[in-house]
Amino acid sequence: MKTTPSPNETITQPFRQQHTLTGSLNLDMLGSHVSPPGWQGSSHLHDFWELIGQFSSDTYTLLIDGATYTLSGQSVFLIPPATATKFSTPTQANVFYTKITSAFLCPCL
């Protein structure tokens, strides 16, 4: 199994790690995505809230419902369900993401 690319390693294909969690944490999904320079994802929707963040100096662009936003440095975005989202990056970028459901927001449900 491949490990996460090192900060100085140049990649040519997207690299993703994702974990499905169960138990008392109530966190359904947690992952990271390393994108090579010039990478562009496809537009997509989710049926859940998605938290996306970046804690590096890389630049990552989000197209959310037609509006363009840039993650750089320490940035976090919370994207509502059924929201068209597309990602791109001019440089190699490393981001994390997680799925947020009502069970995560309120374990009493």
What report would you give on this structure?
- Strands 1, 2, 3, 4, 5 and 6 form a six-stranded antiparallel sheet that branches.
- This protein is mainly beta and 109 residues long.
- The model has no long low-confidence stretch (mean pLDDT 76).
- It has one helix spanning 102-105, and strands at residues 15-20, 29-35, 49-64, 67-79, 85-88, 93-100.
- The chain is globular.
- The chain is 4% helix and 50% strand.
- It is built from one helix and six strands, in the order ββββββα.
| Rg over alpha carbons | 14 Å
Question: How many runs of DSSP E, i.e. beta strands?
Answer: 6
Shape: globular
Q: Please give the alpha-carbon distance between the first and last residues.
A: 36 Å
Q: How much strand?
A: over 45%
Please state the second-level CATH architecture.
Sandwich
Structural class based on helices, strands and sheet pairing: mainly beta
How many domains? The number is: 1
CATH topology: Jelly Rolls
Question: What's the overall average pLDDT, rounded?
Answer: 76
Low-confidence stretches: none
Largest sheet: 6 strands, antiparallel
Main CATH class: Mainly Beta
